[in-house]
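Q: I have 661 residues here and want to know how they pack in 3D. Can you give me a structure?
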Amino acid sequence: MRIGLPLYAGVISGLYTKPDTFFLVSVAIVIISGFFVSLFYNKSQTNLIFGYSLTISLFTCGLLLYTIEKNRISTLKPEEALFACTLSDFPAEKENSFMLKVNLNRKITMDGHEAIEGSMILYNKKDSSVTSLLPGDLLIIKCTPVEIANRGNPYEFDYRFYMENQGIRYYAFTSSRDIIRHTVPDHRKLVHRALIIREKIIGMYKERGITGERLALVAAITLGQKNMLDPEQKQNFIKAGVMHIMAVSGLHAVILSLFVFNLLFFLKRRFNILRILITILILWSFAFVTGLTPSVLRATLMFSFLHAGNLMQRRVNGINSVLASAFVLILIKPSVVFDAGFLLSYSAVIYIIRFYQDFYLKLQFKNWLTDKIWQSAVVTIVAQAGTLPLTIMLFNRFPSYFILTNIIIVPLSSLLIIIGCLVPMMFTVHFLSQFLALILNYLTGLTELLTAQASALPWSTIENIGMTTVECILLTLTIFLFSYFILKKQSFSIIYPITAMFLFVLSGTVTEISTRTKNEVIVYNSPGSSTIGIKTGKILNLYSDTSLVGPEVLRHCATLGLKIKTNTLSNNIYCIEAGEKKILIGNSLNKNILTNFMPDIVILTGLRPEIEKNLSLRQFPGTLIITSEATSGFRLPQQIDFAGIDTVHLVRKSGAFIKRI
C-alpha cells in the first residue's frame, strides 16, 4: 500500500498534467538530495526523510511512465497513405464489415519509410478473403486514418480515452483491394501464438459436437472469447448479474487453482513445493491458451503471488499479494489503472480478502450443503458490495437477484471451466473427450436456460440509475468503512464511516442543487436521428423524431436523476420559450420564419435542412445548430450572411451541443 498508492497517484495525475524538463530536473534534485540526507538518519528508529523521498520518486515514476505511454502513440495525418502493420487478433465479423485490429510498424512514403507506433482499427468491407488472416500476419494497408472522437453527449462513456488506453487512436475504412501485401511471418510473437491456439481449442469443441449458441457460451466462459456471443445472450447474463463468469479473471483462476491443488493432494510435506509449482505452471498455461488477455494476466499474476508466499514458506498477506500484482501490472502498462475490468476485479478481490472470513463466521451451519450455500452467498455479497458503486457508475444498472443467480450459476460455471479445460487435454482420447463434451454441452444448456429464466423475472435488473465519479469514490469509501466497522467494530470508531457517509450525502446534495438550478438546451449526437433536450431543473423535455429514447439520453438522465417528458417531432415548426431564450426547432429556415418567431437559438433537423438562399442572419439568431441527422455531405449555403451569428454548430462533426439558458 505504501509504495503502491504514490505510483497510482502519479499515473492518475498524468491525466491533468504533462511534466516538462524543468519539472523533472527539479524533482530529481529533490529526490537525490532527500536520499542523501536520509543516510544520516539510518540508525534512527524511523527515517521520515527516506520515506518522503521514496514517495515522491514513486509518484514521479507513475507520472513519467503514463506520459511516456501516451506519447508513444504516433500522430497521423488524415490523408491516404501506406502503412506496414501486424494483425494483432483474428478478424471480428460485424454487421457490414470485418474489424481488423493492427499494430502499426511503419508509414511508407516516396522517400522511404518512417517508424510509427500505436494501433489502428480497420473496418474492412465484407469479403471472405480476410477470414484467412491470422494474428501475427504482416500487412501493407492503404488507408486514410480518422482520429477516434467522442460524440460529446453529457456523461457519456469516454470511448476515445478507453481506446487510447488500448494504444488505439485511429480507425479507417478499407476493402480487400486496400490490402496491398499479405506476408506470413517466419516467427510469430507469443501473444499471437496464444490466440491461434485458443481458436484451435474452439475448433476442438466444435469437433466434439458443441455448436451454435452453446459453443459461443463455452468459448466465452472457458476461454474469454465473447465475439461469438449473441447480443441477447449477453443481455441475459448482464440482467442476471453473472456476466463476470464470461470475463476470464479471478474467478477462473480460483476455480482452476483449487481444482489442480486439490487434485495433487498426494504431494504433501517435502513434495508440497512441487505441488505449488505445478499449480502455478498450469495457471500460466491456462493464461496462455486464453490469449494472454489483460484480465487473465491480472488474475494469474495475482494468484501467482499468493502461491509464491506459500512456496517460500512465508506467511502470506492477501492484500499485499494483490497490490503487488497491481504494482507490477502498472509498471508494465500504467494506463491499466483506468481499465474498468482492473477496477472491478481488484475491488472485488480486496473486499473478499478483507471481509469474507469475518462475515462468514457471523453465521455457522452444521449441514454441509447449507454451509456451502452460505459460503457462496457471502462471497457474492462481499464482492458485490465492493463493486456496487463502480457497477452503477459504469453500467447504470444493478442486478436485483445477484445473490440467487450467483449461488446457482457460479457452481455450474465452475464445472464448466474444469470440464472445458479437460476436453482439449483429453482430445486425443476420443471416447473420453466425447463423453466430457456431452457433459459440457448439457451443463452449458442448463446454464443458458437458468440465466434466461432469471433475467426474465420481474425487476431482474434496476436500470437507469447512475452517479458521478465523485459520488462513486465517496460511496466506495463509505461502504468499505461501514463494512470495517460492522465486522471489526472493537478496533474501529463509528466516526470514520459516518464522516464518509456525510461527505457522500453532501456530494449528492450539491449535485442535486446544481441540477435543479441549471437550465440547459442539449442537442444530442444521436446518429441517424434528431434528439433535442431542453432541461429545466430536474425535467428534461425531449424533442425527437423517434419515439424511442436513445441510450445517450438515458445515461444523462440516470446520472443526474432527470425525469423525461417526450415529444415527437413532425414536419412542423416549433418555437419554445425556455429561461430567457426562444428556441426554434424545424427542418427549414427562411426570412418569414425568422421574422415571425425572432428566435435566439435555431435548431435545424432532417437529412438536408432547407435554408433559403441569400438569407441574412444579422439580427437573429445568435446560435445555429444542425442536428446529427443531417447527412455527411450536407453543407450550409455560401450565400448566407452569418454576420449576426455567434455560433454555428454541426453536431455530426463537432459533437453534441450544450448551452446554459
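Q: Anything worth noting?
A: Residues 194-463 form one domain. The chain has five domains: 4-71, 81-188, 194-463, 469-516, 519-660.
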